[in-house]
Write a structure and sequence with these properties.
This protein is 61% helix and 0% strand. The protein is an all-alpha fold and 275 residues long. The protein starts with 12 loop residues before the first helix and ends in a 21-residue tail after the last helix.
Length: 275
């Protein structure tokens, strides 16, 4: 195992090269060749106002619940009850109190532990999209594009601010990062990757700790800062690095209980390879 000196604030060269190569190849594979993603179908779906709204709603609800349960139980229940149909939901804004109560009930039956926050977030999102973005979530991007023309960095910056610092409720940086990662990665919104906040979920934090880049993986701020610093050192965007670490953190590679070092692209340089 190669030596690793964290105090220098620099990655050991072998690990640095391995991580850079992994990030570039994983980012490409994830959005073009990965069989789960079904690139063309998902891209076409996200380009519709309804598809983008559904994905936005899923990102909003991605808290206090495992992602697999969200996608296998909660989302189907919402879709079955018509609560992912934007045009139906916008007609309910005349009675927001009952609208929210109904959503709480559906989310609760589907097993979402944060049903009150989730219901409030959906009602607030429908209201913001209808009033501020003319019933089309794509206008978050379109308005920024009109304002900043061809400056892809400023467009991305404006979009991120619209999502995280506007009237949207419960849309934290993690969720905004997940939503924007796909809107850009699937070729729906043409803007720079650099300003997009990294999601830094459980998988990413586990890999950061095993790479000895953080002292405490439960400290989200420390992990986010590590992502930003590491991305800068590797000349990558934070979201590229985030996607790569998330993929490496899969249970089939760098799982919680028993890492599969023979499957990891960092196995020759990882400081935790002896685990």
């Amino acid at each position: 195992m190669a030596e690793y000196n964290r105090d220098e604030g620099l990655l050991q060269e072998g690990l640095k090269q391995a991580l850079y190569s992994a990030c570039k190849s994983i980012w490409f594979d994830w959005y073009v060749w990965h069989p789960i993603c079904k690139f063309k179908e998902h891209s076409k779906w996200l380009k519709t106002a309804q598809g983008a709204f559904e994905w936005f709603t899923q990102c909003l609800l991605d808290e206090g619940i495992r992602t697999d349960i969200l996608q296998s139980r909660v989302v189907p229940k919402l879709r079955e009850a018509g609560y992912l149909n934007y045009h139906k939901l916008v007609t309910r804004l005349s009675d927001p109190e009952n609208f929210e109560k109904e959503l709480v009930e559906v989310l609760g039956k589907a097993g979402h532990k944060m049903k009150y926050e989730g219901a409030k977030a959906i009602v607030r999102a429908v209201g913001v999209i209808s009033k501020k973005f003319e019933n089309n979530i794509h206008n978050i991007y379109n308005y920024a594009l009109q304002k900043h023309r061809k400056d892809r960095y400023k467009v991305a910056e404006e979009v991120c601010l619209s999502l995280t610092r506007s009237e949207f409720y419960w849309m934290k940086e993690k969720k905004a990062g997940i939503f924007l990662r796909d809107m850009v990665g699937y070729g729906v919104w043409d803007m720079a990757l650099q300003p997009i906040p990294p999601a830094v979920d459980t998988r990413v934090r586990r890999v950061l700790e095993r790479l000895q880049l953080v002292n405490n993986r439960n400290n989200v701020r420390e992990c986010r800062d590590a992502i930003l610093s590491l991305a800068s050192e590797l000349n990558l965007t934070p979201i590229e690095l985030d996607v790569a670490l998330w993929t490496i953190g899969d249970e089939k590679i760098c799982g919680e209980k028993k890492p599969k070092h023979d499957r990891c692209p960092l196995n020759l340089s990882c400081p935790s390879v002896s685990l």
